[in-house]
């Protein structure tokens, strides 16, 4: 990955994103010429299922690149299977139930390169967002800190442990767990003199899954979210881009719809009110 980003721009542009496809080398969510871009370049690839790989975007320099990514993908999938088992046990649900939702372990990879910026406080490396995933395995590739999470309205730096993954709970896990695990809002800042690199592997439910709180967790009828097809969730999630907090807000917007539906079915009025407050911040 380090070798890939070191190459001249022209070489990297061989793998440029094309309209209508989120894979390849470029920038995330570019929707307008006037948009202020994040201070980062990235290479995004679909890794699993393996027949969805689009090899046009897979660099073959350095020569070991494709092979390394392939192995990384299998190992990440194994780690995530283990984590899903532990999470199921922690929630008191059958591990097989959770694993079935992630069957085949659809996975994509985003490698991000943040160049240094002398006026680092005037730019943002990666805008605030939540991951629209089940779980994300995030690796800070070099020893430059940059990840922050928003807690109680404040941004808090997360220090990566050497050689360890940072595991993010994504939006889907928040819904499946009926809110037990919160999908955390995060962003990346840049360093004034040093470049930074990270690699995130996003794990999604299988494409024909329905996402909603696991039935074992709503036995008492307290479902915080109603269910929807994962592909519908994804479509709505991607519709709102280019806003400073686009992804978090998009997620809240989708949740809002889910919670309103739940409310219509006579559940959780208090939670619905909370989400209505969030909705006021969103212009859609
Ligand atoms: O670079 C980082 O530390 C964060 C990356 C991230 O949040 C993402 O790729 O979704
Ligand atoms: Fe993220």
Automatic annotation (TrEMBL):
InterPro entries: DIOX_N (IPR026992), IPNS-like_FE2OG_OXY (IPR044861), IPNS-like_sf (IPR027443), Oxoglu/Fe-dep_dioxygenase_dom (IPR005123), Plant_2OG-oxidoreductases (IPR050295)
GO MF terms, alphabetically ordered: metal ion binding; oxidoreductase activity
Keywords for this protein: Iron, Metal-binding, Oxidoreductase
Gene3D superfamilies: B-lactam Antibiotic, Isopenicillin N Synthase, Chain
Residue ranges of domain Fe2OG dioxygenase in the record: 105-205
UniProt keyword annotation of Metal-binding present: yes
Oxidoreductase among keywords: yes
Pfam families membership: 2OG-FeII_Oxy, DIOX_N
Family named by the database record: Belongs to the iron/ascorbate-dependent oxidoreductase family.
PANTHER family assigned: OXOGLUTARATE/IRON-DEPENDENT DIOXYGENASE
Name of the protein in its database record: Fe2OG dioxygenase domain-containing protein
Originating organism: Eragrostis curvula
Source organism phylogeny: Eukaryota, Viridiplantae, Streptophyta, Embryophyta, Tracheophyta
